[in-house]
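Re: beginner question about structure tokens

> Can someone show what the tokenized structure looks like for a real chain? I only ever see the sequence side.

Sure, here's an example I had lying around. Input first:
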Amino acid sequence: MGKDHPLRAVRAMTDEILEAMSPLFDAMYAECGRPSIPPEKLLRAQLLQMLYSVRSERLLMEEIDYSILFRWFVGLNLDEKVWDATTFTKNRDRLLEGAVAREFLVQVVERARAAGLVSDEHFTVDGTLLEAWASLKSFRAKDGKQNTPPDDPGNPTVDFHGEKRSNETHESQTDPDALLARKAKGKEAKLSYSGNLQVENRHGLIVNAELLQANGRAERDAALLMLEQVGGDGRITVGGDKGFDTQEFVAECRHMNVTPHVAQNAGRAGGSAIDARTTRHAGYAVSQKKRKRIEECFGWLKDIALLRKLKHRGLFKVAWIFTFAAAAYNLVRMRKLIPIPAAA
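And the corresponding structure tokens:
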């Protein structure tokens, strides 16, 4: 492996972050019973899965087994036995019990802030739909009534055309936390989650991530939730698309000492909630230009980290994976922004 291999910089940053999280891991690591996989190795392996778009844990274990590069990154010797895929999954699920993904993202952002890469004043928020690991066949009436018995209990033929179905009357039997949502008018509705990001405008790094149910208000609710967590007493700005141009969202932002630099929705009933008091400033145009970079984050999370079609079920698990993927994206960006000496 060459000295300028991108994984060297990612490994160096990851090691420093995991060292800072060591007290959290000590509290989680079992001191009795069968030996478990160290959390540090689990997280490095999870990073590899996202960085190299490995579609399953079983395939990940195979690639770690024969790849010297992957073994080095995870911290396995050449003669060490690679874990079984089921063992890896069960051990990784232990990390869900603690705020590991959230703390990992916090540590990544703190490292970027210490290097002067993060703006503390100018941000962008947005959300996207992530398709749940559940089919529309599983979206059935909550009362459990079926008009006709299934022709095949394992994979029944379901004809729901003409049937009125909504999140109030139906839910997925496979993933009850997933809700039926559509991207826009005229688009097909799918069982989905709402993945939301807060990005700083200096280098486009993700500073916060929230995953909520796709209830139609999730983007604005998540944006306000993330903005509440921004420290400092000074005024900040937040960019956003036309979906954030509502009287309620703009009023809440101003109440929190946040200047809403959201795109004006001229077709909105009653007109835009943003007027010339905001748009006349040069900073508004800059925010509108910068806010489009958040789409790069969503593109990476969906195409590289393979979150376009989720492979986990339940709000808690999906939120964990989404948050950890946001941290992985930052590491990829930061490896070019921070001069890091080559790892040994």
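Each token stands for a local structural state, so reading them left to right follows the chain. The mean pLDDT is 89.
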